[in-house]
């Protein structure tokens, strides 16, 4: 938003419940907003306006935090209807078809051993095979409800009962990667190309490295394996219209998630590397707009 504002763009903010479909048009009750890099005083809203997302705006950013629920899915269907007139980033159909912990299965060769299930017997068998596991919700975010289960399987049955009672979806189980103690790297790709990375170090007594739950950020470089991962998925991200993506890699080699909904990390990347990732994102958007205008 800061980069867009610096380029002279007018900014508006709305949430998925503010969308309306009427008479063949997609409308949003949105508030004009100005932003500044001042912690605790970083935005100011104007009075709400009713915008026609096909006629009144040039770009719609779909940047909604999970849960990836029916409200989110409905928003993708509505925003698909404006794409002939307005660029939507990331592409709503591709977002809908690429939930972070399922899309990543297309690149299973780079992942730690992984299972998606609701079956306790399967989880026990997986634990017996791999010794230590991590259990997490399929549509969670920010490191919430991520559990490490040791080889003795203490409380595993209760944990599976809790997950099955709390969510209608299956959950994800992965072999525990000890390398997480050295960090969980967030790599940002813009239109399929690497823009930068930041290493997220777990806090004391934690396996979760998410900055939202106390992880700390550190400057980093990509390993050869990480470059291989990015090269493998970059063309597909670009082809799908997934312009702004963050992937997570543990221990320099194990891919765990592909974040297409609301990836974070660019503030830390720019602070460590002296880059302007927001500007790079808008360069890519401007290129997409120019290509649409020329078509």
From TrEMBL:
Listed A to Z, the keywords are: ATP-binding, Glutathione biosynthesis, Ligase, Magnesium, Manganese, Metal-binding, Nucleotide-binding
Enumerate the spans annotated as ATP-grasp domain.
Answer: 101-286
* Catalytic activity, EC: 6.3.2.3
Q: Which residues form a coiled coil?
A: none
Supply the Pfam families for this chain. GSH-S_ATP (PF02955), GSH-S_N (PF02951)
Name the cofactor(s) required for activity, per the record: Mg(2+); Mn(2+)
Q: What catalytic reaction does the record list? A: gamma-L-glutamyl-L-cysteine + glycine + ATP = glutathione + ADP + phosphate + H(+)
Q: Does the keyword Repeat apply?
A: no
According to UniProt, this protein's pathway is: Sulfur metabolism; glutathione biosynthesis; glutathione from L-cysteine and L-glutamate: step 2/2
The family this protein is said to belong to = Belongs to the prokaryotic GSH synthase family.
Q: What is this protein called?
A: Glutathione synthetase
From which source organism is this entry? Sphingomonas bisphenolicum
Taxonomic lineage is: Bacteria, Pseudomonadati, Pseudomonadota, Alphaproteobacteria, Sphingomonadales
């Amino acid at each position: 938003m800061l980069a867009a504002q610096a380029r002279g763009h007018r900014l508006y903010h709305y949430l998925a419940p503010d969308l309306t479909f009427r008479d063949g048009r997609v409308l949003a009750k949105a508030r004009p907003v100005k932003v500044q890099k001042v912690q605790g005083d970083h935005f100011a809203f104007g009075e709400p306006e009713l915008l026609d997302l096909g006629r009144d705006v040039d770009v719609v950013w779909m940047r909604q935090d999970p849960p990836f629920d029916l409200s989110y899915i409905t928003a993708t269907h509505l925003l698909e209807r404006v794409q002939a007139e307005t660029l939507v980033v990331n592409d709503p159909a591709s977002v809908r078809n690429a939930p972070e912990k399922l899309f990543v299965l297309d690149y299973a060769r780079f992942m730690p051993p992984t299972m998606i299930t609701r079956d306790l017997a399967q989880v026990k068998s997986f634990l017996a095979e791999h010794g230590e596991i991590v259990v997490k919700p399929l549509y969670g975010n920010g490191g919430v409800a991520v559990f490490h289960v040791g080889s003795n399987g203490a409380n595993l049955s209760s944990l599976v009962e809790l997950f099955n009672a709390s969510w209608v979806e299956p959950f994800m189980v992965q072999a525990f990667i000890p390398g997480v103690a050295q960090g969980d790297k967030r790599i940002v790709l813009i239109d399929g190309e690497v823009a930068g990375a930041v290493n997220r170090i777990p806090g004391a007594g934690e396996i979760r490295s998410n900055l939202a739950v106390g992880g700390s950020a550190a400057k980093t470089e990509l390993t050869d394996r990480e470059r291989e991962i990015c090269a493998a998925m970059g063309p597909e991200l670009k082809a799908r219209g997934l312009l702004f993506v963050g992937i997570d890699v543990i221990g320099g080699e194990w891919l765990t998630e592909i974040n297409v909904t609301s990836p974070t990390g660019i503030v830390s990347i720019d602070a460590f590397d002296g880059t302007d990732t927001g500007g790079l994102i808008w360069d890519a958007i401007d290129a997409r707009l120019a290509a649409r205008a020329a078509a």
